Amino acid sequence: MEIVEFRPEMAAGLARCYNDLVADVPHCYPVSVEAFSSMERLASANCHDEALLAAREEGEVAGFVHVGIANPPKFDWHPQGEPGVIRFLSYRPGQRQIGTALLEAAEKWARERGRGEIFGWNSLYAYPFYHLFHANLSDRLGHLHSLFGKAGYQPDWGEVFFDWTGFVPPAVPMPALNFDLEVERQEKPEHERNQTVVKALHNGEEIGRCIMLRLGEVLPRPDGREWSFCDWLGVNEPLQGRGLGKFLLAQSLVEMQRAGCKHAAISTSHQNYRAYLFYTNFGFNFCDRTTSFRKQLENLALTAEDAETCPEPAEGAQRRIFGWPPEPSAPLFRWAGP
User: Fold this and answer.
1) 92-98, long-range: CB within 8 Å, 24+ apart, which pairs?
2) Distances from the Cα of 216 to the Cαs of 128, 131, 138, 232, in angstroms?
3) What residues contact 222, with CB distance under 8 A and at least 6 apart?
4) In a 3-state reduction of DSSP, which class is residue 221?
5) For residue range 298-322, what is the model confidence (pLDDT) as tens digits?
6) pLDDT for res 319
7) Per-residue pLDDT tens over the stretch 271-299
8) Which of 52, 60, 129, 285 has its CA 20 to 30 Å from the CA of residue 244?
9) Tens digit of each residue's pLDDT (9 = 90 or more) over 57-67
10) Phi then psi dihedrals of residue 257, to 5 deg
11) Nearest-CA neighbor of 150 among 293, 248, 274?
């Protein structure tokens, strides 16, 4: 096996590896060879100095890892300090040696560029054709979760997804609050997302909003024109629990239905159990759980060569076990309550 940098002639093998990996992942669809025809086509607006490293066996692509360096953070919940990032990692289940070699190559690449930390599969750097907005590493890819865990990565952020095929907007009565409803279609500049915003206004001040996207306008998926995605649902804290969020979501689905959408999806943080209950009671079904990872590169994972010379721990010593939850980090909430 050899690890080599991207070459255009690898495009067919890379597309095959991608398609094989995501075949059973919700909201993922096969991509053409053209998607992997150049690094420019794969480039992310949120990182720089990217590279794609492929594992080859007998001349065939057996897996790949896509790495880069994060751009300076725009928000406090973005990875800080311009760390290394692993945008995508693909290898077949059962071929752990290939996955380990690719992960070690990614870490080496980041260290050579002075990065002391690396993030794995953070949605900020995801491929535009992978899953839904805010999706990290899907739980359907268990061999990759295991690989990151055994290599010393810690869970960093989780996002849970719900969808509703053939949705029927429920009839939700207007809550007993003094507000006006405003629907605004926002046309964004190129490379940004057009969106429909349903707002609740009290004396001209916004007290709640729901932002909906038509996936066909922003994601290259074959059924994108039929799908909508709730990118934000929020209500001012003093007004939570009074039905405004439920009303805004219902009105937003009506707007998406008028626009020709037949299906809807929504997501929330892995810790927002109140939102889980709200969305499933509303009509959505659990779809997927996704996780991003991070690792301090100073704490290097053992290579096979190191392991041969590493002494066993003393009798009675504890081994650290990869687990949940991660260390506390800055929270991000996109749903404030019904």
Assistant:
1) 92/20, 92/21, 92/62, 92/63, 93/142, 93/143, 94/143, 95/62, 95/63, 96/143, 96/147, 97/1, 98/1, 98/55, 98/57, 98/62, 98/63
2) 12, 13, 22, 18
3) 29
4) coil
5) 744 444 444 344 343 343 332 222 2
6) 28
7) 999 999 999 999 999 999 999 999 999 74
8) 285
9) 999 999 999 99
10) -65, -40
11) 293
Q: 316 Cβ partners below 8 Å, 6+ apart?
A: none
Q: How far is CA 298 from CA 71, 110, 226, in A?
A: 21, 11, 47
- The arithmetic mean of pLDDT across residues 205-221, rounded, is 88
Q: Which residue stretches of the chain are H helix? A: 11-22, 39-42, 96-112, 142-150, 244-258, 273-282, 304-309
Phi, psi of 216 (to 5 degrees): -65, -20
Query: What type of residue sits at position 311?
Result: P
Distance CA 67, CA 29 (A): 22
Domains of the chain plus CATH, in order, are 2-159+289-302 (3.40.630.30), 180-261 (3.40.630.30)
By DSSP bridging, strand 180-186 and strand 195-202 are antiparallel
Where do the DSSP E strands lie in 71-204?
84-91, 117-120, 137-138, 154-164, 180-186, 195-202
Q: How far apart are CA 182 and CA 187, in angstroms?
A: 16
Which residues make Cβ contacts (< 8 Å) with residue 44, sequence separation at least 6? Answer: 50, 68, 87, 125
DSSP β-bridge partners for residue 120: 86, 293
Q: What single-letter amino acid sits at 105?
A: A
Cβ(275)–Cβ(248) below 8 Å: no
Distance CA 173, CA 243 (A): 9
Cα 185 from Cα 196, distance rounded (Å): 5
Answer whether 0.70 is exceeded by the pTM. Answer: yes
The answer to whether the CB of 127 falls within 8 A of the CB of 46 is no
Read off the pLDDT band of 192 (50, 70, 90).
Answer: low
- The Cβ of residue 26 has, within 10 Å, a number of other Cβ atoms equal to 17
